[in-house]
Q: What sequence folds into this?
């Protein structure tokens, strides 16, 4: 797609008159009932978009395209090396499945406003379930397949679903994970009990259904298809619980109207896509990225989306993502920096990419965590296309900073930067008093209100905690991230505010130190921790993962990395210790658990995060910390 309107003009117009800007964008979608005004406020003073209007997201994603010439176009490419399955679903086929499954849910008593939890891996049935809920005006909440029973129980009690939809199991590289035992344990822990559990049977892990409670997914597909129910624009589409939630859940609420307008716009303006083109988003539907850019965004615009069930490596190798781009002629690849680092670790020379025709690829987009310049440069050199690091959160639902490749004159992407504010977002960097800081000064990243359509409107049944985002600095949404803007307007997100460490009165970003460590030719990825120190307050320590095939000794690597940090930041950084580890603990969405690592090294008590991908890695790192005497808990005399 050729860039259209000017980025500068679009961004200026979106801030000068947000209501007019987004009203114009909203007219690109068909409304059952036109909205009375684009922007208004509710009784709590919260900004609301398109009140009075009615539409339905499932209709926009499916029926509209079938009626306008895309019935035979693939809507979804399902590719699963773990189950050895590949299948394309046209818009007409996906509509038929969705309409029938919605009819089956209705027969189970699911109605407008009811909640439905979906506990499934990346499989077509999960997409059908999401779209079927939207079709009825039911509110879905997708929980990552295989999530721990306790955390599933917490979400069941918070959302109080009428129906729970699950797969019989999932498959990793080397193991099968039955889901029904996990569901049974979760239901035993939960106070709320859904009326029915719908089970999608998978042939590699068949489940025995419990009579009176369980229903086969295929049985619901025998129902008569039902039409989409027009719902108010402000009606919730889904609840998505943020990663890292423990104890009281934190359910982000997304609404039909603003969500549809924002994602439709973002597909064109940010990703530069046109109807009929293909996007491959290497994420999971359990996260915001999967919701927005595997399912809803591509289907709203009339694109084809690749639904991938597997990992970036070992399914079967580090060339899997390149194969997917080549096989489905994807114009855009979107994934997390951690996926690129995993590929780089196993194939540092990028030889596997040379086996595939990647001529369809126009850009690689990365988000979910900051992309260090070393990873950015490696990917750009390998692929020969722009690499766009962009920044957004579960709460925003779509990017706040990016390079808007669908708009003319957008500044080029730059290593280390998340780009410029997306139209609709007034991004500011504030000091602790809430005042804007000069260019080049690190501060708190905040968004001036109103937030554009698509951002969360509240937290599920917790308006008080929602206000916590807005209360610290009146007139702003506080993102919780720190960063700065340079003299040319490029924005740099350096990580969560609690990832800033104070070394003898000097505030240092762990992200800045990580950049230096990651630039070493032996390092695949790294994390820097601020450890408690009785003299300096905190001192940094580094954990690094080596690229495959590297044989450098730990002591030599430590000397080289300490020298590099001293040379680029200075002796004040006080980096003294670097520990080589096999891998870093991460959430299932790819974020490194830096706070947990710091608590581990400082000997503090901590709750094991619900979203950790591999809990056993913490024991391995603990043993390494003890061996090297890193951290207060291990370096003090016994």
A:
């Amino acid at each position: 797609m050729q860039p259209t309107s000017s980025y500068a003009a679009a961004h200026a117009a979106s801030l000068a008159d947000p209501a007019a800007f987004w009203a114009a964008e909203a007219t690109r979608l068909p409304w059952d009932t036109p909205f009375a005004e684009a922007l208004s406020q509710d009784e709590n003073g919260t900004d609301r978009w398109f009140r009075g209007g009615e539409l339905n997201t499932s209709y926009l994603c499916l029926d509209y395209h079938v009626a306008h010439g895309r019935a035979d176009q693939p809507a979804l490419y399902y590719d699963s090396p773990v189950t050895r399955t590949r299948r394309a679903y046209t818009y007409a086929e996906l509509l038929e499945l969705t309409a029938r499954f919605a009819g089956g849910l209705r027969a189970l008593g699911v109605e407008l406003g009811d909640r439905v939890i979906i506990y499934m891996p990346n499989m077509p049935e999960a997409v059908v379930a999401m779209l079927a809920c939207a079709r009825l005006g039911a509110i879905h909440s997708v929980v990552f397949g295989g999530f721990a029973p306790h955390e599933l129980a917490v979400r069941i009690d918070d959302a109080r679903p009428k129906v729970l939809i699950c797969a019989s199991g999932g498959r990793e590289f080397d193991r099968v994970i039955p889901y029904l035992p996990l569901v049974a344990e979760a239901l035993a822990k939960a106070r709320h009990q859904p009326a029915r559990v719908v089970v999608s049977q998978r042939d590699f892990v068949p489940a025995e259904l419990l009579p009176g409670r369980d229903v086969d997914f295929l049985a619901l597909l025998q129902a008569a298809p039902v039409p989409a129910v027009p719902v108010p624009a402000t009606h919730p589409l889904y609840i998505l619980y943020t990663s890292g939630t423990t104890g009281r859940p934190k359910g982000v609420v997304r609404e039909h109207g603003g969500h549809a307008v924002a994602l439709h716009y973002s597909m064109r303006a940010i990703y530069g896509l046109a109807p009929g083109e293909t996007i491959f988003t290497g994420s999971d539907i359990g996260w915001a990225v999967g919701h927005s850019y595997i399912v809803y965004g591509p289907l709203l615009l009339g694109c084809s989306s690749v639904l991938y069930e597997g990992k970036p490596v070992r399914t079967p190798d580090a060339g899997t993502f390149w194969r997917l781009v080549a096989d489905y002629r994807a114009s855009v690849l979107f994934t997390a920096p951690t996926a690129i680092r995993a590929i780089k670790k196993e194939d540092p020379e990028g030889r596997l990419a040379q086996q595939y025709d990647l001529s369809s690829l126009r850009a690689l987009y990365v988000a979910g965590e900051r992309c260090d310049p070393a990873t950015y440069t490696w990917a750009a050199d390998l692929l020969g296309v722009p690499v766009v690091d962009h920044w957004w959160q579960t709460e925003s639902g779509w990017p706040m900073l990016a390079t808007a490749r669908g708009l003319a004159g957008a500044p080029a992407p730059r290593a280390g930067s998340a780009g410029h504010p997306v139209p609709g977002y007034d991004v500011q960097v504030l000091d602790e008093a809430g005042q804007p800081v000069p260019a080049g000064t690190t501060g708190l990243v905040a968004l001036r209100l109103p937030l554009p359509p698509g951002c969360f409107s509240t937290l599920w049944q917790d308006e008080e905690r929602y206000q916590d985002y807005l209360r610290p600095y009146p007139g702003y949404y506080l993102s919780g991230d720190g960063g700065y803007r340079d003299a040319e307007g490029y924005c740099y997100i350096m990580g969560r505010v609690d990832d800033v460490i104070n070394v003898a009165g000097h505030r240092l970003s762990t992200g800045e130190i990580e950049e230096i460590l990651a630039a070493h030719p032996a390092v695949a990825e790294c994390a820097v921790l601020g450890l408690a120190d009785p003299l300096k307050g905190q001192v940094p320590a580094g954990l690094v993962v080596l690229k495959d095939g590297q044989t450098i000794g730990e002591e030599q690597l430590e000397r080289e990395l300490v020298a590099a940090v001293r040379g680029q930041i200075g002796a004040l950084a006080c980096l003294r210790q670097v520990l080589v580890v096999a891998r870093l603990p991460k959430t299932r969405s790819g974020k490194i658990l830096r706070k947990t690592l710091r608590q581990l090294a400082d000997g503090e008590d901590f709750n094991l995060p619900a979203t950790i991908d591999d809990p056993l890695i913490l024991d391995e790192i603990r043993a390494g910390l003890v061996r090297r005497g890193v951290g207060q808990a291990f370096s003090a005399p016994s």
